[in-house]
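1st attempt posting a full record on here, be nice pls
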Amino acid sequence: MALEFDTRFDPSYGHSVTVAPDVLRITAKNPSRFTFYGTNSYIVGRNTLAVIDPGPDDDAHLKTLIEVIGDRPVSHIFVSHTHRDHSPLAARLKQHTGAIVLAEGPHRPARPLRIGEVNPLDASADIAFAPDVTLPDDEVVNGDGWAIRTVLTPGHAANHAAFALEGTGVLFSADHVMAWATTIVAPPDGAMADYMASLDRLIERDDRLLLPGHGGPVTAPRSFMHELKTHRRMREQAILERIRSGDRTIKDMVMAIYSNTDPRLHGAAGLSVLAHLEDLVARGLVSTDGDPAIDGIFAPVA
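the predicted structure (as tokens):
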């Protein structure tokens, strides 16, 4: 069964949308093939507020955030991860509000770069970001009428975190789970083994609503995440079948597996295949000379 995505979404640029009690969504106007209609920022609370994922360094988005916040104080700014569509505006919003900035930590890859390797996602990394407070897993931050728990979910990025609004069943899933598309997992920025483990962790929770970093809500989280997991395992199986059929390069695998995908996305698809291959090599199901690489030669393990 094909994974069904929900692409219905009204970004309502320049305005806030109520998505849960005391939770407003504001979507930045930075649409792309990878950000959908743009990055979602969330404002939590009624009196003293928290902001989750302030978004890209964009004047119009900052203006909308400030207008919606109005004269209410902001005590905390939470950042899910350090890609440039999520974290850069934190510094300017902090300057305006005086809030403290919280995140898992600065940007880092999921693993060290290998000799001669270039990180194709360097341009998307907010390496200037540094939180005021680093958040360990399961940390609860109490605010004015709200409490937010950190749920570390590495995979899309090494420092990716989801945030649970305690007592509500609402989880801000950022880029780990989105209703409109699968998550990009691209080494060395991210890691497939980490992503799958984090997905299992969220499945074990009993959240009733996921509010992602892009697009609309996930309204049946557990069943949707089981479908996501099945989709990833089917993609893994497709890669194994291509290798057993004689494909030896990622380029050949992408041409076969993603034959119906826009060729402009084949570069991202190749990184996703590499993420799977790193995991498959680590599990002893595929062999390669040295470390798995985007230009490597892969073979089945007898």
